[in-house]
Amino acid sequence: MAYTVQKLKDYSPAALDKAAEKLLAALEKEAAEVKTEPDGKAFRDRWVARKNGVLTQINDLWLKAAPKDAKREVGQRVNELMGRVETRVTEVELQCRDLAILKKAREAGLDARIDEARRALELSDRLDITLPGIPRPLGAEHPVIKTMNEIVSVFRNLGYSVQEGPVIETDYYNFEALNFPPNHPARDTQDTLFIANQEATPLRERLLLRTHTSPVQIRTMEKMKPPIRIVIPGKVHRNDPPDASHSPMFHQIEGLAVDTNITFGDLKGTLDHAMKALFGSNVKTSFRPSFFPFTEPSAEMMVTCFICGGGGKRGAEPCRPCKQTGWIEILGCGMVDPNVFEFVKDKGYDPKKISGFAFGMGADRVALLKYGVDDIQLFFQGDVRFLRQFA
Ligand code: PHE
I want to staple 96 with a disulfide (CB 3.0 to 4.6 A). Which of 40, 141, 316, 372 is the partner? Predict the structure, then answer.
């Protein structure tokens, strides 16, 4: 039988306590029966609704009906009951809401995640803070970047500053302003990676992946007056199939010095010093004629093999890095062609007044030789078992 509020006949404290106890027992019994959100709402109405809720009833039937001398006793109890009923009703409602959320989550197939969160909570309760932590390995410089930084710092010590330029370049900066003739084979898609669908764009504006860092020579001269001494580290691309010594993406370090009276002697002295700083004071350098459209005269520089020391042999074995010649081809260089200065003449580069030298070397190749790696692909595959060796 459901609980109903009865009129009081006896206003003694003992009788009042008994009536209050009966009411609280009914509250607990009904609270336990609430399962859903609608149940919770009905529960609230039954107990605290202004119109005819149990609380309104005890106010009317117990307090208002009490004789004057019992009002204090009754008032106190009614007040306390009101507080307890309100609290319980709110608790029950919150419980229903949590259950409803849980039910919805279940329906949405979130069971697994809830269980996981529960387990994580349990685990975190059990966390033993006296155990040693999980070590997180620190990253390290990639061997190619490390090599580039070393080369750059050799030139910084000579007073060179660092410049950079975009990897996606225009034909103008990559070729035209560097004195490449219109039909030079490097401009062919065989050799250079062009951005697609640019047939309608004028040649000099067409976009490509720069094939060398030399375009940054022009970009820098456009914004800096002579004298300049700069090095340009960066990423370049060529349309080469990957193999042990080729990668369609690789790295170069370019150098450019422009001033009055710069001579080929300055070029040789600077590069000879740089090679000794990089590979050890024992290395020798040698130059042989070459050709680049943007330098005149042009040369290739060789250094004595720093693996075999120039003898071409490692013990009884032939030295592979230098193909037993004792020399390693390390970079291209030359005196800046006056035709190149013509493109930046109005920026203060009058070929009649100034001269300069430039050079460019492959950083990946230097790293391969330095670390005795036999496949350039290893540098770019991101295999930590390989990379960890350089950390
Ligand atoms: N840019 C040339 C290359 O990539 C190298 C070079 C740079 C040669 C500067 C001369 C002067 O092969």
Answer: 40
Protein residue closest via CA to atom 9 of ligand 1 = 359
- How many Å apart are CA 162 and CA 283, to the nearest integer? 26
> Is 3.40.50.300 the CATH number for 143-165+210-390?
no
Q: How far is the CA of 356 from the centre of ligand 1 (A)?
A: 14
Measured CA to CA in angstroms, residue 42 lies from 71, 93, 99, 102, 182 at distances of 31, 10, 17, 21, 88
Spatial distance between the Cα atoms of 248 and 237, rounded to a whole number of angstroms:
5
3-state class (DSSP) for residue 236: strand
Ligand 1, CB within 6 Å, residue ranges: 212, 214, 254, 292, 295, 332-334, 358-360
User: CA–CA distance from 126 to each of 57, 79, 133, 145, 252 (Å)?
Assistant: 50, 44, 15, 44, 54
Nearest CA to ligand 1 atom 10: 333
Pocket test for ligand 1, best of 163, 180, 214, 216 (most atoms within 8 A of CB): 214
- Residue 57 and residue 46: Cα distance in Å, rounded? 11
The pTM assigned to this predicted structure is 0.67
Distance between first and last Cα of the chain = 79
Q: Structural domain boundaries of the chain? A: 13-124, 143-165+210-390
CB-CB contact of 263 with 269 (8 Å) = no
Beta-carbon contacts of 160 under 8 Å, excluding residues fewer than 6 positions away, are 229, 230, 231, 255, 257
Give 159-179 pLDDT, tens digit per residue. Answer: 999 999 999 999 999 999 999
- For 284, half-sphere exposure in the C-beta direction (CA atoms, 13 angstrom radius) is 9
Nearest atom in ligand 1 to 331's CA: 5
pLDDT of residue 138: 81
